[in-house]
């Protein structure tokens, strides 16, 4: 009876450590790859198409205010076209590197990151500046035993 316990205890410790640490490690890998300008690693760890789709969905939802008059539809069309083009241009490894560089918002500052689990298969990484102002929120989902970034909220 003692032998199975001796085998299960290390396995439980490793599994618990992985469950706690793997989201932090995944977030760190994305942020470090962005800081280093490592486009290849970002392509491996970020599903850019899903990030773009999510940002387009957020844009459409923000423009749906119930108005249907001609001027409102024209304005919505212009905003959607311009912002949609900006999303397509910005959601790239290089664009993500700029987004994750806090010094573009506050020169000389760095983001402070906090990881929050949103379920067994998902978590968010939320950035803030030292003065408490919020930064981007990165959404991650499980991919096998690892994690992949699937969304950004600004």
TrEMBL record:
InterPro entries named among the record's database cross-references: DUF2939 (IPR021330)
Native species: Alteraurantiacibacter buctensis
Pfam families in the cross-refs: DUF2939
Top-rank taxon, per record: Bacteria
Name recorded for this polypeptide: DUF2939 domain-containing protein
């Amino acid at each position: 009876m003692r032998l199975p316990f001796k085998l299960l205890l290390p396995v439980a410790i490793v599994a618990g450590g992985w469950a706690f640490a793997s989201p932090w490690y995944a977030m760190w890998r994305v942020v470090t790859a962005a800081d280093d300008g490592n486009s290849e690693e970002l392509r491996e760890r970020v599903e850019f198409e899903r990030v773009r789709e999510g940002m387009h969905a957020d844009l459409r939802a923000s423009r749906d205010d119930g108005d249907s008059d001609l001027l409102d539809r024209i304005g919505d069309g212009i905003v959607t076209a311009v912002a949609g083009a900006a999303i397509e241009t910005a959601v790239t490894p290089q664009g993500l590197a700029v987004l994750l560089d806090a010094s573009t918002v506050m020169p000389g500052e760095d983001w402070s990151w906090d990881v929050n689990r949103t379920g067994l298969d998902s978590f968010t990484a939320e950035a803030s500046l030292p003065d408490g102002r919020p930064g981007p929120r990165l959404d991650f989902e499980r991919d096998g035993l690892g994690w992949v970034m699937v969304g950004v909220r600004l």
